[in-house]
Fold:
Amino acid sequence: IEKKLDALWKQFPRPAVVANDSQNVTGNYLYQSENLIQCFDSYHSKNSLFCYNAYENIACLDCSNTKSTFCYELIGGGMHHNSQFCFNCEASHECYFCFNCRDCKDCFGCVNLSHKRFYIFNEPYSERQYFEKIAFVKQEFKDSGMFGLQVFQGF
Structure:
């Protein structure tokens, strides 16, 4: 059976890559996309790297199961903008290190929040306090090399 199967595979070769209506892409199963590097199962995406199962991702890096713009290290959810290191969040904007948050903006290190803004570790802050604290935290992370990756500068 193995020999027959091998002969069948040789008789009907498979395409090396499926990339329909896509330009300048590497990966597989890419549809109507452009400028992707090592992305898989992605649709209508642009200028992204290492994404999987992405729909309409624009300028994202290492995101899976998302619909996002300008994001890094996201898994699950969708409609994110400029968020990083979030898991299973929906409609997050400017959120960092969050888990299972819905329709949140300007949140850092939060879990299970919904319709919130200016929260750090699930504690509310005024807009001014939030940006002061976040500036300090981001600088500490940047100084330690854990934050502020400038990936898209020459892409």
Notes: The mean pLDDT is 89.
